[in-house]
Amino acid sequence: EVQLLESGGGLVQPGGSLRLSCAASGFTFSNYAMSWVRQAPGKGLEWVSSINGAGGGTYYADSVKGRSTISRDNSQNTLFLQMNSLRAEDTAVYYCAKVISISNWSPFDYWGQGTLVTVSS
Amino acid sequence: EIVLTQSPATLSLSPGERVTLSCRASQSVSNYLAWYQQKPGQAPRLLIYDASNRATGIPARFSGSGSGTDFTLTISSLEPEDFAVYYCQQRSNWPLSFGGGTKVEIK
Q1: Which stretch of DSSP H or E encloses residue A37?
Q2: Is A61 on the interface with B (CB under 8 A)?
Q3: Distance CA A66, CA B80 (A)
Q4: Quick check: B91 and A104 CB within 8 A?
Q5: Per the CB < 8 Å rule, is B98 touching A47?
Q6: Smallest Cβ distance to A106: which of B43, B96, B100?
Q7: pLDDT, tens digit, for every residue of B33-55?
Q8: Residue B75's beta-bridge partner residues?
Q9: Cis peptide bond upstream of A107, omega within 30
Q10: Which of A29, A38, B28, B104 is the most exposed, fewest CB within 10 Å of its CB?
């Protein structure tokens, strides 16, 4: 059974940093691209970042480019999102998501339960 | 950047009714369009990918159609568990993008 378990969210002051983690199980993690998708309170879904299976290819939304770094540790089946210079508009539930097939970057057939990031003083 | 526009924003319907949701892309996405369902407090669930392919375990009452810029998600007969928000998402171009969602609520 595929499982994705995010952690690392919390309350952080504007300008601060957080590192989100997503522990994956139930599939061959290194074969699949992974992504982060966020959802601000009461709002829609926003794609944040994606990384390929080997970890050498990454993409970012303009809203986080230059402030965030996606990475993965295939030996530990874990996905990360390092977020710096956090702003109030980064407040959201952050989901990690698995791509449906090996050769694609999306869509996403499995999602974690999400971790809430709140940026506030 | 490809903008996906979903309409209507909200639909008020009764169980048993047929539902048609629209997603329009600002430029062609070929058939690289997916649909998700999200219920309150839950993660999204993939329903349809590549415009018309049902994801694993999705009931046959859900169907998708379209190509290019205009896409439709149809629910043939609404079940009580189908009241939720529905999002479309394109994978044709970076950045990946989602539509703003359509809420299907109980009338």
Answers
A1: strand A34-39
A2: yes
A3: 44
A4: yes
A5: yes
A6: B96
A7: 999 999 999 999 999 999 999 99
A8: B19, B62
A9: yes
A10: B28
